[in-house]
Protein backbone atom coordinates (compact mmCIF):
# COMPACT_ATOMS: atom_id res chain seq x y z
CA UNK A 1 0.00 0.00 0.00
CA UNK A 2 1.99 2.97 -1.28
CA UNK A 3 1.75 6.18 0.72
CA UNK A 4 0.00 9.09 -0.97
CA UNK A 5 0.05 11.64 1.86
CA UNK A 6 1.34 12.04 5.39
CA UNK A 7 -0.39 14.43 7.81
CA UNK A 8 1.93 15.85 10.40
CA UNK A 9 0.75 17.72 13.50
CA UNK A 10 -2.25 17.56 15.86
CA UNK A 11 -4.70 14.71 15.40
CA UNK A 12 -7.82 14.29 17.52
CA UNK A 13 -10.16 11.29 17.60
CA UNK A 14 -12.10 9.00 19.93
CA UNK A 15 -11.09 5.53 20.90
CA UNK A 16 -13.68 4.81 23.56
CA UNK A 17 -16.68 6.81 24.71
CA UNK A 18 -15.45 9.64 26.97
CA UNK A 19 -11.88 9.15 25.79
CA UNK A 20 -10.86 11.75 23.23
CA UNK A 21 -7.26 11.17 22.25
CA UNK A 22 -5.43 14.41 21.49
CA UNK A 23 -2.22 13.58 19.71
CA UNK A 24 0.36 16.28 19.32
CA UNK A 25 3.34 15.77 17.06
CA UNK A 26 1.58 12.87 15.38
CA UNK A 27 2.05 11.54 11.87
CA UNK A 28 -0.66 9.77 9.91
CA UNK A 29 0.05 8.05 6.61
CA UNK A 30 -2.70 7.61 4.01
CA UNK A 31 -2.22 4.95 1.36
CA UNK A 32 -3.07 5.28 -2.33
CA UNK A 33 -6.08 3.01 -1.68
CA UNK A 34 -7.45 5.63 0.75
CA UNK A 35 -6.80 3.65 3.90
CA UNK A 36 -4.72 4.62 6.92
CA UNK A 37 -1.35 2.93 6.76
CA UNK A 38 0.18 4.23 10.00
CA UNK A 39 -0.57 6.49 12.95
CA UNK A 40 2.51 7.49 14.92
CA UNK A 41 2.06 9.20 18.25
CA UNK A 42 4.49 11.82 19.49
CA UNK A 43 7.25 11.66 16.92
CA UNK A 44 9.96 14.24 16.23
CA UNK A 45 10.60 15.80 12.83
CA UNK A 46 13.80 13.87 12.32
CA UNK A 47 11.89 10.60 12.86
CA UNK A 48 9.12 11.56 10.42
CA UNK A 49 11.56 12.64 7.72
CA UNK A 50 14.06 9.94 8.67
CA UNK A 51 13.19 6.44 9.85
CA UNK A 52 9.42 6.68 9.23
CA UNK A 53 9.92 8.05 5.71
CA UNK A 54 12.33 5.23 5.04
CA UNK A 55 10.08 2.51 6.47
CA UNK A 56 7.05 3.62 4.45
CA UNK A 57 8.89 5.05 1.40
CA UNK A 58 7.59 8.59 1.17
CA UNK A 59 9.31 11.83 0.31
CA UNK A 60 9.29 15.22 2.07
CA UNK A 61 6.94 16.66 -0.55
CA UNK A 62 4.24 14.14 0.44
CA UNK A 63 4.12 15.48 4.01
CA UNK A 64 1.34 17.94 4.81
CA UNK A 65 2.29 20.08 7.78
CA UNK A 66 -0.95 20.85 9.66
CA UNK A 67 0.63 23.76 11.53
CA UNK A 68 -2.07 25.27 13.79
CA UNK A 69 -4.80 23.23 12.11
CA UNK A 70 -5.83 19.82 13.36
CA UNK A 71 -7.30 16.64 11.98
CA UNK A 72 -10.54 15.04 13.23
CA UNK A 73 -12.62 12.20 11.76
CA UNK A 74 -15.45 13.08 9.38
CA UNK A 75 -18.85 13.30 11.05
CA UNK A 76 -21.44 10.57 10.53
CA UNK A 77 -25.03 11.74 10.15
CA UNK A 78 -27.13 8.66 10.85
CA UNK A 79 -30.46 10.25 9.86
CA UNK A 80 -31.28 12.95 7.31
CA UNK A 81 -33.98 13.63 4.73
CA UNK A 82 -32.25 15.01 1.62
CA UNK A 83 -35.43 16.43 -0.05
CA UNK A 84 -36.45 18.21 3.14
CA UNK A 85 -33.28 20.32 2.96
CA UNK A 86 -35.43 22.56 0.78
CA UNK A 87 -37.43 23.46 3.92
CA UNK A 88 -34.60 23.56 6.48
CA UNK A 89 -35.22 26.43 8.87
CA UNK A 90 -38.89 26.85 7.94
CA UNK A 91 -42.09 25.15 9.07
CA UNK A 92 -41.07 24.80 12.68
CA UNK A 93 -44.46 25.52 14.25
CA UNK A 94 -46.23 22.15 14.30
CA UNK A 95 -45.89 18.75 15.99
CA UNK A 96 -44.84 15.73 13.92
CA UNK A 97 -48.05 14.45 12.33
CA UNK A 98 -49.39 17.90 11.41
CA UNK A 99 -45.90 18.96 10.28
CA UNK A 100 -45.69 15.97 7.92
CA UNK A 101 -49.03 16.84 6.37
CA UNK A 102 -48.56 20.57 6.05
CA UNK A 103 -44.89 20.91 5.05
CA UNK A 104 -43.15 17.62 4.48
CA UNK A 105 -45.33 15.55 2.17
CA UNK A 106 -45.95 18.57 -0.11
CA UNK A 107 -42.25 19.31 -0.61
CA UNK A 108 -41.33 15.65 -1.07
CA UNK A 109 -44.02 15.22 -3.74
CA UNK A 110 -42.21 17.83 -5.85
CA UNK A 111 -39.30 15.43 -6.37
CA UNK A 112 -41.17 13.81 -9.23
CA UNK A 113 -39.60 16.73 -11.17
CA UNK A 114 -35.95 15.88 -11.78
CA UNK A 115 -34.95 19.50 -12.33
CA UNK A 116 -36.23 20.45 -8.90
CA UNK A 117 -34.62 17.35 -7.40
CA UNK A 118 -31.24 18.11 -8.97
CA UNK A 119 -31.16 21.60 -7.53
CA UNK A 120 -32.04 20.59 -3.96
CA UNK A 121 -29.96 17.42 -3.94
CA UNK A 122 -26.84 19.18 -5.25
CA UNK A 123 -27.17 21.81 -2.55
CA UNK A 124 -27.80 19.42 0.33
CA UNK A 125 -24.84 17.16 -0.50
CA UNK A 126 -22.51 20.16 -0.90
CA UNK A 127 -23.76 21.62 2.37
CA UNK A 128 -23.30 18.35 4.26
CA UNK A 129 -19.73 17.97 2.97
CA UNK A 130 -18.85 21.57 3.84
CA UNK A 131 -20.04 20.79 7.36
CA UNK A 132 -17.62 17.88 7.55
CA UNK A 133 -20.21 15.12 7.21
CA UNK A 134 -18.37 12.38 5.35
CA UNK A 135 -21.02 9.68 5.83
CA UNK A 136 -24.74 10.31 5.67
CA UNK A 137 -27.84 8.10 5.90
CA UNK A 138 -30.30 9.77 3.56
CA UNK A 139 -34.01 9.26 3.10
CA UNK A 140 -34.91 10.38 -0.43
CA UNK A 141 -38.55 10.29 -1.62
CA UNK A 142 -40.82 7.63 -3.16
CA UNK A 143 -39.51 8.51 -6.63
CA UNK A 144 -37.08 6.01 -8.17
CA UNK A 145 -35.52 8.40 -10.73
CA UNK A 146 -34.89 11.18 -8.25
CA UNK A 147 -33.48 8.75 -5.68
CA UNK A 148 -30.99 7.45 -8.25
CA UNK A 149 -30.16 11.05 -9.10
CA UNK A 150 -29.33 11.69 -5.44
CA UNK A 151 -27.10 8.62 -5.47
CA UNK A 152 -25.32 9.95 -8.59
CA UNK A 153 -24.77 13.39 -7.05
CA UNK A 154 -23.45 11.83 -3.82
CA UNK A 155 -21.19 9.60 -5.93
CA UNK A 156 -19.84 12.51 -7.99
CA UNK A 157 -19.17 14.62 -4.93
CA UNK A 158 -17.46 11.67 -3.24
CA UNK A 159 -19.50 11.40 -0.05
CA UNK A 160 -20.02 8.05 1.65
CA UNK A 161 -23.74 7.37 2.04
CA UNK A 162 -26.65 5.05 2.55
CA UNK A 163 -29.51 6.24 0.37
CA UNK A 164 -33.08 4.97 0.64
CA UNK A 165 -36.01 5.18 -1.72
CA UNK A 166 -38.85 5.97 0.69
CA UNK A 167 -41.70 3.42 0.83
CA UNK A 168 -45.25 4.44 1.78
CA UNK A 169 -48.47 2.83 0.56
CA UNK A 170 -51.12 4.11 3.00
CA UNK A 171 -52.08 6.99 5.30
CA UNK A 172 -50.40 9.36 2.87
CA UNK A 173 -51.88 12.13 0.71
CA UNK A 174 -53.24 11.20 -2.73
CA UNK A 175 -50.53 13.23 -4.43
CA UNK A 176 -47.75 11.44 -2.59
CA UNK A 177 -48.35 7.72 -2.21
CA UNK A 178 -47.52 4.45 -4.00
CA UNK A 179 -49.40 1.20 -4.43
CA UNK A 180 -47.94 -1.71 -2.53
CA UNK A 181 -46.76 -3.33 -5.77
CA UNK A 182 -45.13 -0.09 -7.01
CA UNK A 183 -43.32 0.34 -3.74
CA UNK A 184 -41.94 -3.22 -3.78
CA UNK A 185 -41.01 -3.16 -7.46
CA UNK A 186 -39.29 0.19 -7.43
CA UNK A 187 -37.37 -0.76 -4.28
CA UNK A 188 -36.06 -3.86 -6.04
CA UNK A 189 -35.27 -1.92 -9.19
CA UNK A 190 -33.56 0.80 -7.17
CA UNK A 191 -31.21 -1.69 -5.49
CA UNK A 192 -30.41 -3.26 -8.85
CA UNK A 193 -29.72 0.07 -10.58
CA UNK A 194 -27.62 1.38 -7.71
CA UNK A 195 -25.56 -1.80 -7.55
CA UNK A 196 -24.90 -1.46 -11.30
CA UNK A 197 -23.21 1.86 -10.65
CA UNK A 198 -20.65 -0.05 -8.65
CA UNK A 199 -19.64 2.67 -6.19
CA UNK A 200 -18.79 0.92 -2.92
CA UNK A 201 -19.20 4.17 -0.98
CA UNK A 202 -22.88 4.58 -1.92
CA UNK A 203 -25.13 1.83 -0.66
CA UNK A 204 -28.89 1.29 -0.88
CA UNK A 205 -30.86 1.09 2.36
CA UNK A 206 -34.39 -0.28 2.77
CA UNK A 207 -36.56 2.63 3.87
CA UNK A 208 -40.12 2.13 5.08
CA UNK A 209 -41.03 5.72 6.02
CA UNK A 210 -42.54 4.55 9.31
CA UNK A 211 -45.03 1.87 10.31
CA UNK A 212 -48.18 4.04 9.99
CA UNK A 213 -47.58 4.76 6.27
CA UNK A 214 -46.84 1.13 5.34
CA UNK A 215 -49.30 -1.76 5.04
CA UNK A 216 -48.54 -5.13 6.62
CA UNK A 217 -47.95 -6.52 3.15
CA UNK A 218 -45.38 -3.83 2.29
CA UNK A 219 -43.57 -4.15 5.63
CA UNK A 220 -43.40 -7.92 5.18
CA UNK A 221 -41.99 -7.66 1.65
CA UNK A 222 -39.42 -5.03 2.67
CA UNK A 223 -38.26 -7.38 5.43
CA UNK A 224 -37.82 -10.11 2.81
CA UNK A 225 -35.89 -7.85 0.41
CA UNK A 226 -33.60 -6.61 3.20
CA UNK A 227 -32.79 -10.19 4.16
CA UNK A 228 -32.31 -11.36 0.55
CA UNK A 229 -30.02 -8.50 -0.40
CA UNK A 230 -28.33 -8.07 2.98
CA UNK A 231 -29.05 -4.34 2.95
CA UNK A 232 -29.24 -1.90 5.82
CA UNK A 233 -32.70 -0.74 6.97
CA UNK A 234 -33.76 2.71 8.23
CA UNK A 235 -37.01 4.08 9.59
CA UNK A 236 -38.56 6.12 12.40
CA UNK A 237 -39.73 4.87 15.77
CA UNK A 238 -41.44 6.32 18.83
CA UNK A 239 -40.79 9.98 18.03
CA UNK A 240 -44.05 11.50 19.15
CA UNK A 241 -46.73 10.45 21.67
CA UNK A 242 -49.59 10.78 19.17
CA UNK A 243 -47.62 8.73 16.65
CA UNK A 244 -47.07 5.97 19.24
CA UNK A 245 -50.83 5.89 20.02
CA UNK A 246 -51.59 5.79 16.29
CA UNK A 247 -49.30 2.78 15.78
CA UNK A 248 -50.99 1.03 18.69
CA UNK A 249 -54.40 1.56 17.06
CA UNK A 250 -53.21 0.32 13.64
CA UNK A 251 -51.42 -2.78 14.97
CA UNK A 252 -53.57 -3.75 17.99
CA UNK A 253 -52.40 -7.36 17.91
CA UNK A 254 -48.71 -6.44 18.29
CA UNK A 255 -47.20 -5.64 21.68
CA UNK A 256 -45.42 -2.40 20.87
CA UNK A 257 -44.05 -0.11 18.13
CA UNK A 258 -40.75 -2.01 18.36
CA UNK A 259 -42.61 -5.27 18.04
CA UNK A 260 -44.14 -4.09 14.73
CA UNK A 261 -40.73 -3.73 13.07
CA UNK A 262 -39.48 -6.93 14.71
CA UNK A 263 -42.58 -8.84 13.54
CA UNK A 264 -41.83 -7.89 9.91
CA UNK A 265 -38.12 -8.76 10.13
CA UNK A 266 -37.10 -5.12 10.03
CA UNK A 267 -35.25 -5.02 13.34
CA UNK A 268 -31.78 -6.48 13.31
CA UNK A 269 -28.15 -5.40 13.49
CA UNK A 270 -28.49 -3.65 10.12
CA UNK A 271 -31.33 -1.44 11.34
CA UNK A 272 -31.12 2.28 12.12
CA UNK A 273 -34.17 3.66 13.91
CA UNK A 274 -34.45 7.42 14.30
CA UNK A 275 -35.70 9.19 17.45
CA UNK A 276 -36.63 6.29 19.81
CA UNK A 277 -37.70 8.81 22.44
CA UNK A 278 -40.66 7.09 24.06
CA UNK A 279 -39.55 3.45 24.04
CA UNK A 280 -40.35 1.32 27.12
CA UNK A 281 -37.59 -0.59 28.93
CA UNK A 282 -38.91 -3.75 27.34
CA UNK A 283 -38.61 -2.22 23.88
CA UNK A 284 -35.05 -1.13 24.62
CA UNK A 285 -34.31 -4.72 25.68
CA UNK A 286 -35.56 -5.81 22.27
CA UNK A 287 -33.25 -3.30 20.56
CA UNK A 288 -30.36 -4.70 22.55
CA UNK A 289 -31.25 -8.29 21.76
CA UNK A 290 -31.69 -7.55 18.04
CA UNK A 291 -28.53 -5.39 17.98
CA UNK A 292 -30.46 -2.61 16.23
CA UNK A 293 -29.04 0.92 16.27
CA UNK A 294 -30.59 4.25 17.24
CA UNK A 295 -30.12 7.68 15.66
CA UNK A 296 -30.48 10.41 18.28
CA UNK A 297 -31.91 13.57 16.66
CA UNK A 298 -32.17 16.19 19.43
CA UNK A 299 -32.33 19.28 17.18
CA UNK A 300 -35.40 17.84 15.50
CA UNK A 301 -36.85 16.58 18.77
CA UNK A 302 -36.63 20.03 20.35
CA UNK A 303 -37.91 21.81 17.25
CA UNK A 304 -40.97 19.60 16.72
CA UNK A 305 -41.54 19.32 20.48
CA UNK A 306 -41.23 15.54 20.31
CA UNK A 307 -39.49 14.97 23.64
CA UNK A 308 -36.08 14.37 25.21
CA UNK A 309 -34.45 11.02 24.53
CA UNK A 310 -32.55 9.57 27.49
CA UNK A 311 -29.11 8.71 26.08
CA UNK A 312 -28.02 7.06 29.32
CA UNK A 313 -30.79 4.45 29.11
CA UNK A 314 -29.64 3.57 25.62
CA UNK A 315 -25.92 3.55 26.44
CA UNK A 316 -26.44 1.50 29.62
CA UNK A 317 -27.96 -1.26 27.53
CA UNK A 318 -25.07 -1.20 25.09
CA UNK A 319 -27.35 -0.27 22.21
CA UNK A 320 -25.53 1.26 19.24
CA UNK A 321 -26.11 5.02 19.24
CA UNK A 322 -25.26 7.75 16.71
CA UNK A 323 -26.36 11.31 16.01
CA UNK A 324 -28.66 12.54 13.25
CA UNK A 325 -29.60 15.97 11.94
CA UNK A 326 -33.03 14.76 10.78
CA UNK A 327 -33.08 17.57 8.26
CA UNK A 328 -35.63 19.23 8.20
CA UNK A 329 -37.37 18.17 11.39
CA UNK A 330 -34.02 19.52 12.53
CA UNK A 331 -33.25 22.92 11.04
CA UNK A 332 -29.47 22.47 10.95
CA UNK A 333 -27.48 20.33 8.52
CA UNK A 334 -24.47 20.44 10.84
CA UNK A 335 -23.58 17.63 13.24
CA UNK A 336 -21.94 20.27 15.46
CA UNK A 337 -25.42 21.67 16.16
CA UNK A 338 -26.63 18.15 16.94
CA UNK A 339 -23.71 17.59 19.34
CA UNK A 340 -24.65 20.76 21.25
CA UNK A 341 -28.34 19.85 21.41
CA UNK A 342 -27.49 16.33 22.58
CA UNK A 343 -25.79 17.97 25.58
CA UNK A 344 -28.75 20.26 26.26
CA UNK A 345 -31.09 17.31 25.95
CA UNK A 346 -29.14 15.26 28.48
CA UNK A 347 -28.86 18.30 30.80
CA UNK A 348 -32.63 18.79 30.63
CA UNK A 349 -33.10 15.20 31.83
CA UNK A 350 -30.55 15.79 34.61
CA UNK A 351 -32.52 18.86 35.70
CA UNK A 352 -35.48 16.65 36.60
CA UNK A 353 -33.54 13.54 37.58
CA UNK A 354 -30.27 14.02 39.46
CA UNK A 355 -29.39 10.35 39.00
CA UNK A 356 -28.88 11.04 35.29
CA UNK A 357 -25.24 11.74 34.48
CA UNK A 358 -25.20 14.49 31.84
CA UNK A 359 -23.54 13.62 28.56
CA UNK A 360 -20.10 15.21 28.16
CA UNK A 361 -19.00 16.91 24.98
CA UNK A 362 -16.31 14.27 24.59
CA UNK A 363 -19.01 11.59 24.65
CA UNK A 364 -21.10 13.52 22.12
CA UNK A 365 -18.04 13.77 19.83
CA UNK A 366 -17.68 10.00 20.14
CA UNK A 367 -21.34 9.52 19.17
CA UNK A 368 -20.84 11.77 16.12
CA UNK A 369 -17.90 9.66 14.92
CA UNK A 370 -17.27 6.19 16.38
CA UNK A 371 -20.85 5.80 17.65
CA UNK A 372 -22.21 6.55 14.18
CA UNK A 373 -19.77 4.14 12.57
CA UNK A 374 -21.18 1.34 14.73
CA UNK A 375 -24.76 2.29 13.87
CA UNK A 376 -24.00 2.03 10.12
CA UNK A 377 -22.05 -1.20 10.72
CA UNK A 378 -18.81 0.30 9.42
CA UNK A 379 -16.78 0.54 12.62
CA UNK A 380 -14.08 -1.61 11.02
CA UNK A 381 -13.66 1.08 8.32
CA UNK A 382 -14.47 4.52 9.70
CA UNK A 383 -15.04 6.51 12.91
CA UNK A 384 -11.45 7.16 13.99
CA UNK A 385 -7.88 7.01 12.71
CA UNK A 386 -6.80 3.51 13.65
CA UNK A 387 -4.52 2.01 10.97
CA UNK A 388 -6.39 -0.20 8.52
CA UNK A 389 -9.46 2.06 8.53
CA UNK A 390 -10.31 4.29 5.58
CA UNK A 391 -9.30 7.94 5.75
CA UNK A 392 -12.53 9.96 6.27
CA UNK A 393 -11.37 13.19 7.84
CA UNK A 394 -11.72 16.94 8.28
CA UNK A 395 -8.88 19.42 8.60
CA UNK A 396 -10.06 22.01 11.13
CA UNK A 397 -8.62 25.52 11.08
CA UNK A 398 -9.31 27.40 14.34
CA UNK A 399 -7.56 30.45 12.86
CA UNK A 400 -9.45 30.63 9.54
CA UNK A 401 -10.05 34.11 8.13
CA UNK A 402 -13.58 34.53 9.51
CA UNK A 403 -13.52 31.95 12.28
CA UNK A 404 -16.56 32.38 14.54
CA UNK A 405 -14.44 32.12 17.70
CA UNK A 406 -11.19 33.42 19.15
CA UNK A 407 -8.19 31.60 20.53
CA UNK A 408 -6.10 33.09 23.33
CA UNK A 409 -2.55 32.44 24.37
CA UNK A 410 -3.48 30.43 27.45
CA UNK A 411 -5.73 28.07 25.49
CA UNK A 412 -4.53 24.48 25.40
CA UNK A 413 -5.14 22.22 22.38
CA UNK A 414 -7.96 20.67 24.41
CA UNK A 415 -9.49 24.15 24.93
CA UNK A 416 -9.23 24.97 21.23
CA UNK A 417 -10.86 21.67 20.32
CA UNK A 418 -13.70 22.35 22.78
CA UNK A 419 -14.12 25.89 21.42
CA UNK A 420 -14.46 24.42 17.95
CA UNK A 421 -17.11 21.95 19.12
CA UNK A 422 -19.16 24.70 20.81
CA UNK A 423 -18.48 27.76 18.67
CA UNK A 424 -17.07 26.39 15.42
CA UNK A 425 -18.84 25.88 12.13
CA UNK A 426 -18.08 25.28 8.45
CA UNK A 427 -15.85 28.37 8.39
CA UNK A 428 -13.35 26.28 10.33
CA UNK A 429 -13.58 23.29 7.97
CA UNK A 430 -10.50 23.74 5.81
CA UNK A 431 -10.72 20.51 3.83
CA UNK A 432 -12.57 17.20 3.90
CA UNK A 433 -11.47 13.72 2.81
CA UNK A 434 -13.49 10.59 2.09
CA UNK A 435 -11.54 7.35 1.66
CA UNK A 436 -8.45 9.46 1.05
CA UNK A 437 -10.05 11.56 -1.69
CA UNK A 438 -10.21 15.31 -1.10
CA UNK A 439 -13.87 16.28 -1.51
CA UNK A 440 -13.75 19.83 -0.10
N1 LIG B 1 -41.83 10.20 10.68
C1 LIG B 1 -42.26 9.82 9.46
N2 LIG B 1 -41.75 10.61 8.51
C2 LIG B 1 -40.95 11.50 9.11
C3 LIG B 1 -40.13 12.57 8.66
O1 LIG B 1 -40.03 12.86 7.48
N3 LIG B 1 -39.46 13.27 9.61
C4 LIG B 1 -39.54 12.97 10.93
N4 LIG B 1 -38.85 13.68 11.80
N5 LIG B 1 -40.31 11.98 11.40
C5 LIG B 1 -41.00 11.25 10.49
ZN1 LIG C 1 -36.61 11.60 10.00
Total beta strands:
16
Which ions and ligands are bound to the chains?
A: guanine, zinc ion
- Beta-strand percentage? 15-25%
Number of helices: 14
**Helical fraction:** 25-40%
Task: Indicate the multimeric state.
Answer: single chain
Give the biggest sheet. Answer: 9 strands, parallel
Instruction: Round the mean pLDDT to the nearest integer and report it.
Output: 98
What does the overall shape look like? Answer: globular
Full CATH superfamily name of the largest domain: Metal-dependent hydrolases
Give the second-level CATH assignment, the architecture of the largest domain: Alpha-Beta Barrel
Q: How would you describe this structure to a colleague?
A:
The chain is α/β, with parallel strands linked by helices and 440 residues long. The chain folds into 2 domains: 3-73 and 387-438, Urease, subunit C, domain 1; 75-375, TIM Barrel (Alpha-Beta Barrel). The protein is 39% helix and 23% strand. The chain contains 14 helices and 16 strands. The protein has helices at residues 45-56, 96-109, 114-130, 144-157, 180-197, 216-229, 241-250, 257-263, 281-290, 298-303, 311-316, 335-352, 361-375, 413-423; strands at 3-16, 19-31, 36-40, 63-73, 75-81, 133-139, 160-164, 166-167, 202-208, 232-237, 271-275, 293-296, 321-323, 393-396, 429-434, 437-438. Strands 5, 6, 7, 8, 9, 10, 11, 12 and 13 form a 9-stranded parallel β-sheet that branches. Strands 3-2-1-4-14-15-16 form a 7-stranded mixed β-sheet. β11, α9 (281-290) and β12 form a beta-alpha-beta unit. α3 runs parallel beside α4 (144-157), α4 (144-157) packs parallel to α5 and α5 runs parallel beside α6. The radius of gyration is 22 Å and the shape is globular. The model has no long low-confidence stretch (mean pLDDT 98). It binds guanine and zinc ion (ZN).
Amino acid sequence: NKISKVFRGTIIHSLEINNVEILQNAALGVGESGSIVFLKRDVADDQVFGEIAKEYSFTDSQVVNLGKKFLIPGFIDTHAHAPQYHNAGTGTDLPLLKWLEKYTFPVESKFRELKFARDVYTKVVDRMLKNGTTTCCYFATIHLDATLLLADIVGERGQRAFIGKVCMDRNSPDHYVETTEQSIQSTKQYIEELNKRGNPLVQPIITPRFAPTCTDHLLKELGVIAKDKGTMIQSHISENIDEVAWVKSIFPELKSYTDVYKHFDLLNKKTIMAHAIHLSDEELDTFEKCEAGISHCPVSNFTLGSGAMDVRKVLRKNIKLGLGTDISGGYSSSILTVIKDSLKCSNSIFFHDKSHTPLSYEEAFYLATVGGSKVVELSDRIGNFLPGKEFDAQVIDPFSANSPFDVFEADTTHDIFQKFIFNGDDRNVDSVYVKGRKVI
